[in-house]
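Supplementary Methods, section 5.1.

A reviewer requested that the exact input to the structure prediction be made available. We therefore reproduce it here, unchanged from the version used in the analyses.
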Amino acid sequence: MSARRSVRGASLGELLVVLAIIGLVGAGAWQALADVRAAWAGREAARGLVADLRGVATEARRQRRSLAIEVDLLATRWRLLGDGNGNGVTAADIASGVDAPQTAWRRLFREGRARLGVTRDLPAADGVGVVLAGSAPIQLGAAPRLVFTPRGTASAASIYIVGGDDRVYAIRILGSTQRVRLVCLGVRGVWEAC
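The structure derived from this sequence is encoded token-by-token as follows.
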């Protein structure tokens, strides 16, 4: 006698359970992908600005004159001003046209998604004190604008950036060396390389 096998398909209930599981897994994967993309977009926006700042520092040394970055916070844009008479970039020389714009206004973040801002109390990127929520997102030393000199020095500054996923980044410009560093606020509330 031959053994008789029972061939049975899946019931509608079993099929619906499998589809529900696939939907839940897919939704979780979609959210995880969205989170990764948001983190990437904020970090890439900050990295793009770091590259621009490093380019200005290099250009100041190449041109053998001071170059200043003027930022329009409301429009989130910047332009480059050049020292026209060898005495540095000054407000009087800008007003008279001696220190003229070297570039048209351009977007502050050319890639990714981010905004300037201090949305919560943060440890200062320079390691001294706290930057309070609502503070200016660009913290300069004594200078009214970010200046890079041909001697390899710059205005010391910290620029605070918030990514699309509310992660916080800081760009630190070291005045004595023109070094431009990008740091991220870690989960422990400490600045880390990113």
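Residues 12-193 form a domain with the minor pseudopilin epsh fold fold (CATH 3.55.40.10). These observations are discussed further in the main text.
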